[in-house]
Design a protein that fits this description.
Helix 1 packs across helix 2, helix 3 packs antiparallel against helix 4 and helix 3 runs antiparallel to helix 6. Strands 1-4-3-2-5-6 form a six-stranded parallel sheet, with helices on both faces. The relative contact order is 0.20. The chain is 53% helix and 11% strand. The protein contains seven helices and six strands. It is an alpha/beta fold.
Length: 158
């Protein structure tokens, strides 16, 4: 089995195209197994694997959340479960194309910071999606719609 990472840290326009990029909330929904997560997964399954991706920003946010969960585990049983979930998180991201925060995304982020008032992490995700044209899948339409030219959809709703 090939476990090579599909993380592309510095390629500007090479590698997989990832026509859709999952925001952190959509990744969380896929993990939680909710009806919304199943809807997202069903729609993603209709796409080619190379058309589905996420960002290193989402990976960071998800990782921070799982590490916090582990640090809050009160006993060995909870720790074992927490580490099992972290391992599932790692396996999921190993199968997913992860778009890095490239120099062009950093430049776009700096440009957007001058006029768009949304959270730092969301703005970084938007910059990545704009520099590697892709639609961001998120429930956070209110913030992402403030980014000029960004394509955004919420696949969690029926």
């Amino acid at each position: 089995m090939n476990t090579a990472s599909r993380f592309v840290p510095s390629l500007e326009n090479k590698g997989p195209t990832a026509t859709v990029i999952l925001d952190t909330d959509h990744v969380s929904l896929v993990f939680d197994g909710s009806a919304a997560g199943r809807r997202i997964q069903q729609r993603l399954s209709a796409l080619l694997p190379e058309d589905v991706g996420t960002t290193i920003i989402t990976y960071e946010e998800q990782s921070r959340g799982w590490l916090s969960y582990i640090s809050g585990a009160k006993n060995v049983t909870d720790q074992v479960e927490a580490y099992r979930r972290l391992e599932n998180h790692l396996e999921y991201f190993k199968r997913l194309f992860v778009r890095g925060f490239s120099q062009s995304a950093a430049v776009e982020y700096q440009r957007l910071r001058k006029t768009v008032r949304i959270g730092t992490m969301d703005l970084r995700i938007a910059a990545i999606a704009l520099t590697h044209p892709a639609t961001v899948l998120s429930r956070n339409l209110r913030d992402f719609e403030k980014v000029p030219g960004l394509k955004i959809e919420d696949w969690s709703k029926p």
